[in-house]
Amino acid sequence: MAWQLNVERFWKKIVDYYNASPQLVETISRELGPCKQRWARINEQVCKFVGCYDAASRGQRSGQNDDDVMKAALDSFFNIYEHKFSLEHAWRELRHDQKWCSTYIVKDGGKDKHKQVVDVDREDEIAEPESRPVGVKAAKAAGKRKKSGKEEEMSQLQAMMEMKEKLYKQKILDCLLAKKDPLSEMEETLKLKLMSEML
Fold first, then answer.
1. Which of 1, 2, 35, 162 is most buried (most C-beta within 10 Å)?
2. CA 87/CA 166 separation, integer angstroms
3. Nearest to 50 by CA among 94, 105, 83, 1
4. 121 in any annotated domain
5. Model pTM score
6. PANTHER family in the record, alphabetically (predicted)?
7. Long-range CB contacts (< 8 A, 24+ apart) of 58-64?
8. What tens digit of pLDDT does each residue of 1-46 get?
9. Are residues 174 and 92 in the same domain?
10. Domain-located, residue 119
11. Distance between CA 3 and CA 173 in Å, rounded?
């Protein structure tokens, strides 16, 4: 229930942000449904293109530059899906986000043969992509593996710390709920936050 409210708030913020764009002054504002549909189309096409781009990157030969890789990826996309990839601007915006980062890793501990050139003036702007989080299956498999003595102690300690934190939050919430005087704005916010965490 709480996650549905968060999702609705999230999409409402996106619709409001989109409709507030100065480029859309004096145009008909978009509703929630069309915004979600547009994102679904962008997401689908960008995900397909990411696969083509990764394959082209893995097949990059000596002497080829990024433009050659991009051309190969666009050609591959056209050959597979029988239409041109028209969302290159969206891919360029999303490509360094966690979901769309390349999953290609050089095997056998070898070095990547392609050197990354960094413009000295723009070095501060370039951020390293974050590592992708562990998937559900991998997390479950890791949990089933037998842990060493230290790992077992650490997991027990972590479980105790989490329980202690949960009890502490519960105690604060109980105090806020038991308070007879009207709550301040900050206390009310804290109460709502703690209640949503407990649910």
1. 35
2. 45
3. 94
4. no
5. 0.47
6. GLYCINE-RICH PROTEIN-RELATED (PTHR45023:SF4), PTHR45023
7. 58/104, 60/114, 62/113
8. 566 777 888 888 888 888 888 887 778 888 888 888 888 888 888 8
9. no
10. no
11. 20
Q: Same domain, yes or no, for 154 and 84? A: no
**Length of the chain in residues, anyone?**
199
Task: Tell me the pLDDT tens digit for each residue of 94-150.
Answer: 877 777 665 544 444 444 555 454 444 444 455 555 667 777 788 777 777 666 677
Neighbouring residues of 80: CB distance < 8 A, sequence distance ≥ 6: 48, 52
Residue 96 domain flag:
yes
Q: Could you tell me if 14 and 99 lie in one domain?
A: yes
CB hemisphere CA count around 152 (13 angstroms): 6
| Angle at CA of residue 79, ends 77 and 81, nearest 5° | 60
Domain count, the chain: 2
- Last-in-domain residue among 103, 121, 139: 103
> Strand, coil or helix: what is 194?
helix
In the chain, the amino acid numbered 59 is G
**96 and 32 belong to one structural domain:** yes
Asked if 132 and 101 count as a contact pair (C-beta separation under 8 A), the reply is yes
Token pair recorded at residue 61: 């030969």
* Host domain of residue 154: 149-199
CA dihedral 86, 87, 89, 93 (to 10 degrees): -160
- For residue 175, the model assigns a pLDDT of 84
Residue 192: inside a domain: yes
Pairwise CA distance, residues 85 & 91, whole Å: 10
